[in-house]
Amino acid sequence: MNFLKWPHIGYPKAGVFLTFLLLPVLAIFTPAKAEGTLDLVKKRNVLICGVTQGLPGFSAPDDKGRWHGLDADFCRAVAVAVLGDAEAIKFVPLSAKVRFTALQSGEIDLLARNTTWTMHRDTALGIQFIGANYYDGQGFIVRKDIGVTRLSELDGASICANAGTTTELNVADYFRSNGMEYDISSFEKSEEAVAAYDAGRCDAYTTDQSGLYAQRQRLIEPDAHIVLNEVISKEPLSPAVRQGDEVWADVVRWVHYAMLNAEEFGVNSQNVNQMKESPNPSIRRLLGVEGSFGESLGLDNDWATRIIRKVGNYGESFNRNLGAGSELKIKRGLNALWTDGGLQFAPPIR
């Protein structure tokens, strides 16, 4: 609108007039603000977290029904940051086939289920990955007595795999590009694929290499099997949230970063209270002693302190679930901090 055509109306009056005219228009075209996941979780006072149906090291229940693992820890870290209670969680076991539908439909608030971050999933499924909490690669396990020590020796092999994953696609790509024949048997549940392999229905079983070490513990004779050293893919595993809820995505993403920053600064579950007295500005900001960084997340300033106190830093979670303190004894490798030559990195809090 050209104000020069309204000489009898001064600018202040014209502004009021325009506001009056536009109000009905804005009311029609501005969508009602849907309740965000952060507010929903606070109101419900429970975080609903989608996990695997049982994968040691990542998310698996013990004989009392308590969930353990790197992903289970991450769910607890989000819960204690948002709700102040690391146990205010409902764990929802999901198969690979239904995990994305559960997130898209709102059945769960967060998917923390060793899921590979791919372009298609990130751009076409209405979900958003928040950052790799484990860098993996697809591998193979075979019986020692068949004498296979290299992937090239699997030409013509029968292979068991989990349906609805990137696993099948990676196998197809690898065998085709190397001119090798194979016969694949896919199962909806990973335990079904492992059981079929253990029963001798396949020469090899394939999934992420960390999963192979975990599943080997469940075989009838674990020592009769070997995980081949070679991997055929890169598998950045990341928790995910629904796309379009940036407030919630920021909360979940910075929970991950807070655990990494804590490890980098040497803040752990045992010394977190003493570290509040540290003169290091980075530590003081992380622990909420300086600044008001929790406010920008919709949380209070002790959000990261609660995570570290109740769950620990990233290194503590890794060690007790996957590393030296676990049955799996997986080395940090790519999952070491960037300061130790690995890929795990968190932006600074400032």
From TrEMBL:
<dbReference type="InterPro" id="IPR001638">
    <property type="entry name" value="Solute-binding_3/MltF_N"/>
</dbReference>
<dbReference type="GO" id="GO:0031071">
    <property type="term" value="F:cysteine desulfurase activity"/>
</dbReference>
<protein>
    <submittedName>
        <fullName>Cysteine desulfurase protein</fullName>
        <ecNumber>2.8.1.7</ecNumber>
    </submittedName>
</protein>
<dbReference type="InterPro" id="IPR051455">
    <property type="entry name" value="Bact_solute-bind_prot3"/>
</dbReference>
<keyword id="KW-0732">Signal</keyword>
<dbReference type="Pfam" id="PF00497">
    <property type="entry name" value="SBP_bac_3"/>
</dbReference>
<dbReference type="GO" id="GO:0006865">
    <property type="term" value="P:amino acid transport"/>
</dbReference>
<keyword id="KW-0808">Transferase</keyword>
<feature type="domain" description="Solute-binding protein family 3/N-terminal">
    <location>
        <begin position="46"/>
        <end position="268"/>
    </location>
</feature>
<comment type="similarity">
    <text>Belongs to the bacterial solute-binding protein 3 family.</text>
</comment>
<keyword id="KW-0813">Transport</keyword>
